[in-house]
Design brief:
This protein has 550 residues and is α+β, with helices and mostly antiparallel strands. It has helices at residues 2-17, 32-109, 119-126, 138-149, 153-177, 194-197, 272-275, 279-284, 296-314, 384-397, 404-422, 429-442, 453-470, 491-494, 503-507, 509-532, 539-549; strands at residues 185-186, 190-192, 206-214, 219-225, 239-246, 320-324, 332-337, 342-352, 359-361, 379-382. It has a domain at 120-248 and 282-535: 2-Layer Sandwich (Beta Polymerase, domain 2). The longest helix is centred in the first third of the chain and has 78 residues, at 32-109. The N and C termini lie far apart (148 Å). Enhances Ca(2+)-mediated inhibition of inositol 1,4,5-triphosphate receptor (ITPR) Ca(2+) release.
């Protein structure tokens, strides 16, 4: 039975497999119409797929471009953020620096413009130069001062009295020979400088006298300084100009004070053409050619001629000769006695600055740092009268027999001796006095007791070397807001920027190097110089000096 069923199934299967409609023969023929339709559909499908592929490729390319643009934009934004952060940081730093500079400048204007510094800072600044330098003790210094310096003060007093009396007589004769209607009006002379501040030690003694003068009526002087708002280059700081005008005429040239004119309007009543003086007349008023500015060279020429005429008028009264002694210092005069002795003094014309005791000086005493004037119409300002008053004012508050003048005299003597050995340097006695003025203002009064001479002399040397190291020594009055009110010092100079007296050292390195070398050599020779000029010192002290110098 099962075998029969199997056979039946086998037959059915074979019949199905061999049915011609289910599996056509391999070599069967296909109808041509169906083949062309299939090929056409396949091409259409291929074209559709190709277009779809192109569309997809374009979409992908567009998305990639957008992605790159977004990435680039994000990168630019990030860079801008970083740049902004960096710029903000530099802006903040610049603002902080500006604020610090402004605070520092205000400290200068309040008077903290010449840093005295503490003892530790001073010793750090001195470094090798002061290492191993030991000054003589106060006993030796006191003996040196008494034997070598103090004995000359009596000679100074007698010389001042003689020179002042003669100068008064000479100026009185000068007034008599001048034309009161055309020449300058000469006032009484004033003594300034070391001879009148009692600290001159080096011979020959020279008295410095200044002679204020004013123009004849109806003229007046109008002064302009570097700190009065006018533009002056850095190399002209400390100078000013003097304009000769008619009294009541402003700087613009109109004498009508009450007329309020616009910038584009002209006063026809008082026009410039009506008030301008001929060139020859302005030159008669000692002005520079074709200008209204006072010429220092013309002034000195006029003054020398006037002094010569005055001396010719009174020479018969005296038993000595008078002559101009130095060609580069027009006001330098010398009295020659028949015995061969001589007395030198400087008689220099000056112009008063407004209603103060600051003066425009025609010719300033030259030193190693002195530069040529920008022009003969530029006048240097001198504060010598206020310097003398300040020393007198402070001296009244110091202990009896204070050592401030002694310190300056000893330092001036040592520097002068060193310069005579090694040649001149850029330092002058005026620089040494400026150092003393700074220390007088910084130190308490009790620190200037006579027994503290050695300590204060060290302070001056330390402070001076610090200034040389920094190439900065500021003028005592200019920019100093702590000037005592009792002096009546003009506020315009107190509010001015500090004036660096050592600025030429920055420009002239050879002079600076020579000055520093001379100063260091002076430090090394201090004990030897003082010991050489000291007599009758106990043997123990002198042995100590020799050991220190070795």
């Amino acid at each position: 039975m099962p075998v029969g069923i199997f056979r039946v199934c086998l037959v059915v299967i074979t019949a199905i497999i061999n049915h011609p409609l289910l599996f056509p023969k391999e070599n069967g023929t296909i109808i041509p119409e169906n083949t062309e339709e299939i090929i056409r559909r396949m091409k259409e499908r291929e074209e559709i797929l190709r277009l779809e592929q192109r569309r997809l490729e374009e979409e992908i390319a567009g998305q990639e471009a957008k992605q790159k643009a977004l990435e680039k934009a994000a990168k630019v934004v990030e860079e801008k953020k970083e740049a902004k952060v960096s710029w903000d940081m530099w802006t903040a730093i610049s603002l902080v620096i500006f604020l610090l500079i402004e605070l520092w400048r205000q400290d200068f204007q309040e008077g903290n413009w010449q840093d005295i510094g503490g003892e530790e800072d001073d010793m750090a600044i001195l470094g090798r130069a002061f290492k191993g330098v030991v000054l003589p003790d106060k006993t030796i210094l006191a003996s040196f001062y008494e034997k070598r310096i103090l004995g000359t003060t009596g000679d100074m007093a007698r010389m001042r009295e003689m020179v002042e009396g003669f100068a008064d007589d000479l100026l009185e004769a000068l007034r008599s020979v001048c034309n009161r209607d055309a020449d300058m009006e000469v006032e009484d002379c004033m003594g300034v400088g070391s001879m009148y501040e009692n600290w001159r030690v080096r011979k020959p003694f020279v008295c410095d006298l200044i002679v204020p003068f004013a123009p004849p009526e109806p003229y007046c002087f109008q002064s302009q300084t570097w700190c009065s708002g006018d533009s002056f280059p850095p190399d002209e700081q400390g100078y000013g100009t003097i304009k000769v005008c008619r009294a009541g005429v402003d700087a613009a040239g109109c004498i009508c004070d009450k007329t309020k004119l616009g910038e584009d309007m002209l006063c026809l009543l008082h026009s410039q053409a009506n008030i301008t003086r001929p060139s020859s007349e302005m030159e008669d008023l000692l002005c520079f050619k074709n200008t209204q500015y006072l010429d220092a060279d013309q002034v000195m020429k006029w003054f020398q001629i006037a002094v010569t005429k005055a001396w010719n008028r009174i020479s018969h009264k005296y038993e000595f000769d008078l002559s101009f002694s130095l060609l580069d210092s027009p006001g330098a005069l010398k009295i020659k006695f028949k015995s061969g002795k001589s007395i030198a003094f400087n008689l220099t014309p000056v112009v008063q600055y407004e209603n103060s005791d600051v003066y425009f000086i025609s010719h300033f005493p030259r030193n190693g740092l002195a530069a040529d004037l920008p022009s003969s119409t530029h006048w240097f300002l001198t504060f010598a009268v206020y310097e003398r008053r300040f020393i007198q004012l402070v001296s009244k508050m110091l202990p009896a027999n204070a050592c401030h003048v002694s310190c300056l005299q000893i330092l001036s003597f040592l520097h002068g001796k060193q310069c005579s050995l090694t040649g001149p340097s850029g330092l002058s006695n005026y620089h040494l006095k400026t150092v003393l003025l700074h220390l007088l203002q910084a130190r308490p009064c009790q620190d200037w007791a006579p027994e503290k001479l050695e300590a204060r002399l060290q302070d001056m040397l330390k402070f001076l070397e610090k200034c040389l190291h920094e190439k900065k020594l500021y003028h005592f009055f200019i920019g100093n807001g702590k000037v005592p009110a009792e002096l009546g010092f003009p506020i315009i100079f107190q509010r001015a920027e500090p004036l660096n007296l050592f600025r030429p050292f920055v420009l002239h390195r050879d002079v600076y190097r020579k000055t520093v070398d001379t100063f260091h050599e002076m430090l090394r020779n201090t004990s030897t110089l003082i010991n050489e000029y000291t007599v009758h010192i106990p043997h123990a002290h002198t042995n100590g000096i020799h050991k220190e110098s070795l």
